[in-house]
């Protein structure tokens, strides 16, 4: 299953509206087929692995990071049916598919065909690979990561607005990798006008992984001449525009303090990614007034989810706490 999870990771940021799934087919102690969801969501991981395995799939075990789909689409057959037809003897599944068209039906169909089914193997890891897909299925909206590059005193720029560079090269490279995992990258009007960002992915081998870009602004009538305007970036009035687009699963927000504050007040952030530099600058704060009535209201909203050393900086991740 670890190998299947690694394969699934190859598709992250490229498979929407489908999740990124990995599949490994094993027979006689040897891997005979590998597959992962291809760009645009098809072919599915199981179809790719079965095609590679060929006749060797008969009597083999398939390890899949998400329950094989049970519904037939205009874009391809149901993976549950493909596994049955191939003569697979056992299917090991990580996470149950939250899509109501499958949601247990895929595993049930496979079991009804006399195939041994094992569920829940490294399920949490599989679900964590597809936060946007699970969010779409459960809440009807994308999963939002808010990225901030801050000094130790919580500032994102000097008082005159200069912010290049608060963090070092390793942290910036890490942020570009994070961009590559998203379907949409969003900035606000202030960031567009102050920095004119390109929002591309400048990592060797991942240059083609840049997500679609958008500017969130209620006051802009059209995108001004900028690097983003030349790339076909879209102008959005609010997050309702994003919620209406089912092809957007994971959103990466790189806006300034105004946009960060607006999204936090609206409770639209699911994950905080904070790059912390070991400097003090006494400049502009990264987050504005959140309208808290009492300090107690700030506690229990965020759960620490990991720290990565990016010397001299570090990346801190926090996940939204379950509803209280």
TrEMBL record:
CMP/dCMP-type deaminase domain residues: 1-118
Sequence positions that bind NADP(+): 149, 165, 191, 195, 199
Cofactor note: Binds 1 zinc ion.
Binding site for Zn(2+): 44, 69, 79
Binding locations of substrate: 163, 179, 202, 254
GO biological process: riboflavin biosynthetic process
A GO molecular-function annotation: diaminohydroxyphosphoribosylaminopyrimidine deaminase activity
Catalytic reactions of this protein: 2,5-diamino-6-hydroxy-4-(5-phosphoribosylamino)-pyrimidine + H2O + H(+) = 5-amino-6-(5-phospho-D-ribosylamino)uracil + NH4(+); 5-amino-6-(5-phospho-D-ribitylamino)uracil + NADP(+) = 5-amino-6-(5-phospho-D-ribosylamino)uracil + NADPH + H(+)
Protein's job: Converts 2,5-diamino-6-(ribosylamino)-4(3h)-pyrimidinone 5'-phosphate into 5-amino-6-(ribosylamino)-2,4(1h,3h)-pyrimidinedione 5'-phosphate.
UniProt record similarity statement: In the C-terminal section; belongs to the HTP reductase family. In the N-terminal section; belongs to the cytidine and deoxycytidylate deaminase family.
Protein's name according to its UniProt entry: Riboflavin biosynthesis protein RibD
Organism: Glacieibacterium arshaanense
């Amino acid at each position: 299953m670890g190998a299947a999870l690694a394969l699934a990771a190859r598709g992250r940021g490229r498979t929407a509206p489908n999740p990124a799934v990995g599949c490994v087919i094993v027979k006689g102690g040897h891997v005979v087929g590998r597959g992962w969801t291809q760009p645009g969501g098809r072919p599915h991981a199981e179809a790719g692995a079965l095609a590679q395995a060929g006749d060797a799939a008969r009597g083999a075990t398939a390890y899949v990071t998400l329950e094989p789909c049970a519904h037939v689409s205009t874009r391809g057959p149901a993976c549950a049916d493909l596994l049955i037809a191939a003569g697979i003897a056992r299917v090991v599944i990580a996470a149950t598919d939250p899509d109501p068209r499958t949601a247990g039906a895929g595993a049930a169909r496979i079991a009804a065909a006399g195939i041994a089914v094992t569920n829940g193997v490294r399920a949490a890891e599989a679900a964590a690979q597809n936060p946007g897909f699970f969010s779409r299925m459960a809440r009807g909206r994308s999963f939002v990561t808010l990225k901030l590059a801050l000094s130790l005193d919580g500032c994102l720029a000097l008082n005159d607005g200069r912010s290049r560079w608060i963090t070092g090269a390793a942290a910036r490279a890490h942020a570009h990798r994070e961009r590559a995992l998203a379907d949409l990258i969003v900035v606000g009007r202030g960031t567009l006008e102050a920095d004119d960002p390109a929002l591309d992915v400048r990592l060797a081998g991942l240059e083609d992984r840049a997500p679609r870009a958008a500017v969130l602004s209620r006051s802009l009538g059209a995108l001004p001449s900028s690097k983003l305007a030349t790339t076909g970036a879209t102008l959005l009035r609010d997050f309702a525009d994003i919620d209406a687009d089912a092809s957007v699963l994971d959103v990466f927000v790189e806006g300034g303090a105004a946009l960060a504050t607006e999204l936090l007040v609206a409770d639209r952030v699911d994950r905080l990614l904070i790059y912390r530099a070991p400097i003090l600058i006494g400049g502009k704060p990264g987050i504005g007034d959140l309208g808290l009535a009492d300090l107690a209201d700030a506690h229990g909203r965020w759960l620490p989810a990991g720290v990565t050393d990016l010397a001299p900086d570090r990346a801190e991740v926090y996940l939204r706490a379950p509803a209280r």
